[in-house]
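LOG
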Amino acid sequence: MNQEAKWTKFLFRSISYVLVAAVASAVTMLLWGPRNPKLAELEKIIDQKFVGQYDEAYIQDVAAGAMVAALGDRWSFYLTAEEYQTIMSDKSNSFVGIGVTVVLREDGVGEEIVNVIEGGPAYEAGLQVGDIIIRVDGTSVAGFNTAETRNLIEGEENTQVTVTVLRDSQELDFAITRKTIRIVAAKGQLLPGNIGLVQIENFNDNCASETIAAIKQLQEQGATALIFDVRNNPGGYVNEMVKVLDYLLPACVVFREMDYRGIESSRYSDAACVELPMAVLVNGESYSAAEFFAACLQEYDKATVVGEKTSGKSYYQHTIRLSDGSAVNLSTGKYFTPGGKSLTELGGLTPDIPKAVDEETAAKIYADLLAPEEDPQLQAAVAAILQTNG
């Protein structure tokens, strides 16, 4: 399965069972028993007098999740050992699966496929955007969250999984062989008018090298302007973002941060730069490094930002592994634009040219189903570039 191509969405859905657990607040105290007499007392009472059966490992996972959720920080969350392994795989832009992105359906029937990786096992088998996964190897996924469904679909490379989908009210079975799938972090396309379009999927491993390679290739093809598409980009590693900004910008501050100790630091670019008109496409699903990438280019008047206001994520997290293989993804610092602005306080980055789209169009953009000429936000960016070029 795809890294959801957007790993933040997977995480929020995958921990939902923790957040809604009715006893989460109570069992959280079990983790702190040794540190607090009251909590130790509660643990002893449960251990001695609870009449039912319970899964101790599950209680610990639920309690840990509730403890982190109680911080009230939407960016901090607990990961089970299985979820930790999945996220680490996602960040490497490589995973073993069938190559689809799914979202939960509100009706609870199953999970709808919103993207199929071209050339991947699911693509070759015939799965399509809009198919609803209802069973995996005969197990119904009704009521499952995306993490639970993903655990059923993923497995060892070269093993087979049978996925049953609902398509136009008809049930169809697909036997699919799991393969290692590599996510392309960035790719380029030359548009009419010699405008280079660079789509950046995420800022995880290989993003900088692939983005810079795409820029160079477009320039060799005659590009006289660049549009960067970071819509639906979940962010990633700051170092990858800084490398791209360093390539694009002359000597300047490209990024500021402050850690949990209050220590501030800045990242810089060197003098070499790309002297071309630029625009950046953003939307409400542009997170963290994606929106700070756009903000930096905007603040230095190097690019026109087009689209919809971004998410406003300016806390950064460290994923800290625990002794049992689980982990906590904890906010440990804050990001700021080169000018010292917090995108959280601003409620996100505001585009220079606002351009909203309806839900149907947004879904097609997410699934990469629109041709450039059919994409209203992209065409607004093209118009801005043409105006800049006179």
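LOG (cont.) second protein
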Amino acid sequence: MRLSDKSRVKNAAAALGLIAVIVAAFTYLKVNPRDILLAVPRFAGFFVRNFLPPDFSSLASYIPLIAETIFFALAGTCVSSLLALVFGFLISERTNSIAPLRHTARVVASVFRNIPVMVWAALLVYIFGIGSLVGLCALVLGTLGLLARSYAESADGIPAGKAEALRACGASYPQILFHGLLPEFIPSWVNWTLFSLEINIRASVILGMVGAGGIGIMVQTNLRLFKYAEAMSLIIVLTAMILLTELAVNQIRRRLK
């Protein structure tokens, strides 16, 4: 069989496997595709009738909550980045040669990474009550594991040549770290931190819906009170805020290249 024929067979097998997985998932969940197709026009009609045009009359009163959402996303990203930097260096083989400590730090970071932010928020609400402290702590704990692993992988990907040359010249560990590893690590650190900021801006809105502070709780409140047009105005503002964050982050990344 020629190489092109083998590729076609593999692609066909992959496509059939994907279709089989989708069919199995729909069957297990008892979801009828026909119901989905019928629901789309009903939802579109409901959306147009109730959410449009948006009502911006009360938007000024929500500005403090919007600012709160932005600031605890920024604070959560900064705090988690600093903590993850420590964990990342403990996990990385390039910066930590003590295997037991490295494995312990990896397990702790994995626990943080595998518990969703919403679960952290739901647990913390019972401890601290409703407020921005819950959102901040949930973002820190939820982001810590992701950034720790990302930082560790970035550190492991740094070529060892410069560090080995410094070690051969008798440089101490702090000198190797600050002069051999950090200059190569900083661009990746900035990129991953900015990426987590994008995620946290979105997450901070969702966290508000479980009482973790910010504007999310007002979106949910308006929906529950059937104030759909007012909720739509907040959705538009939040969407614009997220898009502006992405644009700003992309500009920073371009300048760092």
